[in-house]
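Thanks for the sequence, V.! I ran N-acetyltransferase right away. Repeating your input here for the record:
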Amino acid sequence: MSNQVHDATERQRFELDIDGHIAFSTYRRDGDVITILHTEVPKELGGHGVGSALARGLLDLIRSNGLKVKPLCPFVKAYIDKHSEYADLLA
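Predicted structure:
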């Protein structure tokens, strides 16, 4: 699922489209730092690991673009706390 996450720059959010439903994380970019503000998973996708796939995918995109992340969103912050392999991305 994570490789399906894309950066919808015009909406300033990372998106994951599954079965016609879009899970997303909104962000603000300031230079080389992406601040993750809020994450939403449609109720139809809840409980299936979609939020985690979205977090993993957006963090992989941030890494591949040589950026850093500031997770104001509690979900993404908790994901990074549980997955230390992403700790190096913290701004």
